[in-house]
Design a protein that fits this description.
With about 180 residues, the protein is mainly β. About 15% of the residues lie in helices and about 45% in strands.
Length: about 180
């Protein structure tokens, strides 16, 4: 009987330790947006100094359309920078994708409807998101260029893919810096 109690206690202890270990793997959730309106399509990148960079699309009532917003954290996500609006177009800006290269330069692409149909736009920051470059238009297609993704390689070349309807159906296109 004493063996059964010891085994039972060890089993309960093991379950408790395992569940406690799983609970320690993730922090509690931290709310990054407070505008009460539509916030979606987030993306995240972490630089070599472990600074966290986050972008998303939102319509917060202050701006006339959906725009791309940015925040960063320099302390592992405990606190976050003030909100920055990175786009101010006359039409919808959405589906942002972000990456950080080996020099900690931040690169951002998104789809934007400012030119009639959707086109892919780009900007970057060389100072951890404090300031951003002017917008560069990357596509001039007869169809819609949508849902871009961005990455960099070991030589800091920037690679971009997106869906494109210029060929009559949706195809995947690619370009690099």
């Amino acid at each position: 009987m004493q063996k059964k109690i010891i085994i039972l206690v060890l089993g309960v202890l093991l379950v408790f330790l395992c569940s406690d270990m799983n609970a320690q793997m993730w922090s509690g959730k931290i709310r990054l947006t407070w505008n009460g309106n539509f916030n979606n399509f987030p993306d995240i990148a972490v630089d070599s100094s472990d600074n966290i960079h986050v972008v998303w699309m939102a319509h917060d009532g202050t701006y006339s359309n959906y725009e791309i917003f940015y925040k960063n954290s320099t302390d592992g996500g405990s606190s976050w920078s003030p909100l920055q609006c990175l786009t101010w177009t006359s039409r919808r800006s959405d589906w942002p994708s972000i990456t950080v290269d080996s020099n900690n330069n931040i690169h951002l692409v998104w789809q934007d409807e400012a030119y009639g149909g959707y086109e892919i736009l780009y900007k970057n920051s060389t100072n951890s998101g404090s300031t951003w470059s002017a917008v560069q238009r990357l596509t001039w297609n007869s169809g819609w260029s949508t849902k871009p993704k961005i990455a960099y390689d070991s030589n800091d070349n920037i690679h971009i893919i997106w869906g494109d309807t210029s060929f009559g159906d949706s195809e995947i296109l690619y370009k690099k810096s």
